[in-house]
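Case study.
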Amino acid sequence: MQSFNSHTGLVVPFERENVDTDQIIPKQFLKRIERTGYGEFLFYDWRFQSDGKPNRSFILNAPEYAGATVLVAGRNFGCGSSREHAVWALRDYGFRALIAPSFADIFTTNSAKNGLLLVTLSPAQIRDLMTRAQRGAFELTVNLESCTVSSADGFSAQFAIDPFTRTSLLLGQDEIGMTLQHEAEISEYEKSHC
Amino acid sequence: MARTLFEKIWDNHVVCSGPEGSSILYIDLHLVHEVTSPQAFEGLRIAGRRVRRPESTFATMDHNVPTTHETRSFITDVLALSQVEALRKNCREFGIELFDLDSPNQGIVHVIGPELGLTQPGRTIVCGDSHTSTHGAFGALAFGIGTSEVEHVLATQCLVQKKPKTMSVSFSGIPAAGVTSKDMILALIARIGIDGATGHVIEYLGDAVRALSMEARMTICNMSIEAGARAGMIAPDEITFAYLRGRRFAPQGNAWEKAESYWRSLSTDSGARFDTTVEIDAAALAPFVTWGTNPGMATPVNGKIPDPDGASSDSERNACLRALEYMALKPGTRIEDIPVDRVFIGSCTNARLEDIRAAARVIKGYRISRQVQGLVVPGSQNVKHAAEREGLDRIFVEAGFEWRESGCSMCLAMNPDKLNPGERCASTSNRNFEGRQGAGGRTHLVSPAMAAAAAVAGHFVDVRNWQYK
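After joint prediction, the assembly is written out as follows.
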């Protein structure tokens, strides 16, 4: 897994709540057996018209947000289906960090396994970020070492994150390998319970 | 110290404490399907790892499979076929029992687990599917995981977890005839919102829950995820034991006695505390119908489409406007005046024998409306054959429904069963997200009886007033 230490990138304001993983990556793109190549299908039904041409009114198609790597969204981002493909699509498209008032549980876990940092801030802070990002050309630095989000124009916030998720992201570690180090305890558990 | 049902199962599965406040949790049963597993098996191969406990791992194919008899053994969608073949190969290579398309036990993963007796009280159960919460109906701790965690469980039989919070949802009273467990769970989600239970494991309590069959309990637990919950659970009782006894993987003989006595300890102690509590009067509930694009946008069938101007915040108003635009509905429209084009009876929420029976009872002696196309997709081959033995398939076919082979079908439209753009569907499934049943399709979630009644009437009707023939 790619580690996450600090990242500075263009912010896209995504003013929607309850964005479900069916929207992030529609089901017709879940039939692949690889982990890569999902970026072109990200938000497919919103991003493209039924004739396959880009939907000009969709924010990711706006030229000023081309190359955005930080997405600011409304509450409960990533709800619904457990499909990890949603995270693969966001990463493959180029996003490194998402900032919202809250995220759905399974999506949170899936993000942590793929080097995608989820930052939870208050609704007021999110509104502030949305306003700044809507002016365009707004860059944020998300620093996981110091757990801070900051911009050159003066936005600054501290965020809380589960310590295990933080360490995993900072080190980009192989979690399966870590669990396998507890082989003796797992075998012991199996002897007494299974 | 007094503990909740969840805490008892959690404590019993902690192998050791993990890094930084996490726990390494042992997983008793891992269910696998074709869509979320290929990358996990590939990960094992790349790392040179094996499946730690193939005997605790079971697989089937359900999401992308066609549901007509003719197309089932000859999948023309090359991508779907490659997933099905990958699962066959992975199960062979890693020694996992697979209920393949020609198996009498094939079906939707959350229907066959209970049916085969794999789902048992006190177990930890995971699957790469958010509706794994279904299995909590047996007093198991069951939750959906992503593909990376599927790989983790395959390799280690464990997961690194942070202990979730607990929520009790108590349904008092006894619901009116025609009001089902689907209506109870839709009422809960409408009340607390689709993120109302995020970070929590829900335990369902109360007289209305105790009175439910196992099938009906599974419907409630199934949709716990639609309230954002990690899992939903119901303590096991005589109804649970009667359902399980004699099933293929259920304990037999002395092992059953021993298991049952342990299962009887699996209920929340008096005095145990929940982080959050919710109370709902089930006796006051009407059948529910969703009108929007998430399962929390629901109203009683005798209600109306809400007015966005009545929303409590700007963001809620915008979400409501957006949903009404997608659904092509106007504020103030009576739910019963909404016509439907399609009716889908199926999915891991409502495709068990009891659901099929409830719909058949409504349909019997009627024909479905001329403008409605109806589809019944049993949850498993076992459900299908049991329904056919009772002659239920004939009731549906004579009424004008199509009677299909088992699979996820139009719940998520990853297979040939889908809505066309603009079509409106009364569906017994679990999600009414934009495009869920097909790009541009419009989904209204209801119970099986409500779906059947809508098929006959051509629009939503209150099934409490149904004239049964």
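Observations recorded in class. Chain B has a mean pLDDT of 97. Chain B touches chain A through 65 residues (CB under 8 Å). We will return to this complex in the next lecture.
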